[in-house]
Specification:
263 residues, alpha+beta, Jelly Rolls, Arc Repressor Mutant, subunit A, 2 domains, 6-stranded antiparallel β-sheet, 9 helices, 10 strands, 21% strand, globular
Amino acid sequence: MKETQQLINPHLQDINPILAGWSYSGPGDERCPEVLNYTLLHYVCSGKGRIHTSDGSFDLVPGQAFLIFPGDHVTHVSDKEQPWTIKWVGFTGMLSHSFVQLPRVFHVPPQFLPNLRALEDINGHTAFDLASDLLLLYSRLIRQETKKPDYVQFVMDYIQISYMHKLSVQSIADQLNLDRSYLARQFKKRTNQSIQSYILNVRLMEAKRYLMQGYTVKEAAGLCGFNDTANFSKLFAREDGLSPQAWKKVVRANLAAISEQEK
């Protein structure tokens, strides 16, 4: 049985999940997915299987994941004796293309991908939860493979856990004992955006998550490091074309429509 659902697109800049699903395969089931224009990560929950790619063939067991990149031709086959159960997430975004640096098949540590592992249904929080999974996984794997300090990744990780506090380029540079201008140039070169823009994007993404959890606009703004609610609303509208309250109503209306269709 295969279930794939499109996510409500949150338009996240770095990692933007657009669909997710799960599959309970029969013995020897073979799938030849269509050529994609996004990156697709599969996680093996149970059973065994094998994938055939332009890079070669790989056997997979529970706890492993494999990647399918845009333009790939990949076939995956469930084991005849121990058919597998797979969960997956498809995503776009600025960092999605960087996943080609990672191994085609890799082991996922137990503390990673908690939201994908637990995926049973799709709701308004799913895209944000899966984006968090992928950002942390990417960070962990890149650090394992990088021999020299990855200052840009440090900045991204630091912002992810400190967005609710007062942040500046200078304070972050001081954490690394680096020149502010040098760090800013390296970050812009790698990500094609400024550190200030990245801080704003993370704060707005988290604010959307709080809004969907029922917090007021003022509460969401305060929890995400915005001291001025009016300025928060202005920045939010500039990025999304809607005020925070209007965005919240649109998303809830879309969720209600999806729920009605599924009845």
